[in-house]
Amino acid sequence: MTATPREGAGGQKKRGVARVTADLCTGCGICVKSCPTSCITIIESELNFNGIAHIESQRCTACNICAVDCPWLAIEMFNPDGSRRDPSEYAKQAKRLRGYQ
Ligand code: SF4
Ligand code: SF4
Hints:
alpha+beta, disordered N terminus, Alpha-Beta Plaits, binds iron/sulfur cluster, two-stranded antiparallel ribbon, 3 helices, two-stranded antiparallel sheet, 17% helix
């Protein structure tokens, strides 16, 4: 049986998921390096020569790190109910990760 987007591979409830806005992604690869679960890869795209980021949603733990690190704001976070997660919810996490506090 295939897990739904709200469930992990083992059927456990997901905390949310990250999604790439392809039009904004430059294929810089920063998110690939920062993702702790290595679930982001760069795939070929007609949008630019570098390609664009692709997130394997089943392995995404919704940790927000890629969304924090993307310099082009090309990654958005979504809650388990499908609603968009307000970046202000993880603004404190962003500051901590960047060493501001
Ligand atoms: S960090 Fe942002 S712009 Fe760079 S590859 Fe990832 S999603 Fe695309
Ligand atoms: S939210 Fe976390 S686990 Fe999911 S793709 Fe981004 S960095 Fe990886």
